[in-house]
Design goal:
Blueprint (H helix, E strand, L loop, with lengths): L3 E3 L14 E4 L2 E7 L14 H18 L7 E8 L5 H9 L8 E6 L9 E8 L1
Parallel strand pairs: 4-5
Antiparallel strand pairs: 1-2, 2-3, 3-6, 4-6
Helix pairs in contact: 1-2
Length: 126
């Protein structure tokens, strides 16, 4: 079974040698998304709530392109620059998983691409 590379112009183009997502069988592996506007390439970073919603919208665009949705997500990884922002990020993130949220870990890191404050990746299964 060959893997399928998923790409959509509705999410930021990769800024390195990776794919937005890879579909392997019935499992979709979505690369970490940061708060980049897919049309302008500009960062959406006025505040951590805005950043988190931008990241989630980018994830949603990639999921949708592959025929998936947030209800298919089984695992997320959240990378944040400061655990002090955990509550605010969690509040915005939680709006996308109203029931049966996926498994998840949240990791504080010293730096993220383009110096953003949050990056999220996910795995979805049909």
């Amino acid at each position: 079974m060959a893997n399928s590379i998923i790409y959509t112009s509705e999410a930021p183009a990769p800024i390195g040698p990776y794919s937005q997502a890879v579909l392997a069988g019935n499992t979709l592996y979505v690369s970490g998304q940061i708060p980049l506007d897919s049309e302008t390439g500009e960062l959406i970073n006025e505040n951590i709530t805005e950043e988190t919603h931008a990241v989630m919208k980018n994830l949603e665009a990639v999921l949708r392109k592959a025929g998936f949705g947030f209800s298919d997500v089984v695992k997320c990884t959240i990378f944040i620059k400061s655990m002090d922002q955990f509550g605010t990020i969690n509040e915005a993130y939680g709006q996308y998983f109203k029931s049966n949220p996926p498994a998840r870990e949240t990791v504080e890191v010293s730096r993220l691409p383009k110096d953003v404050h949050v990056e999220i990746s996910c795995i979805a299964v049909k």
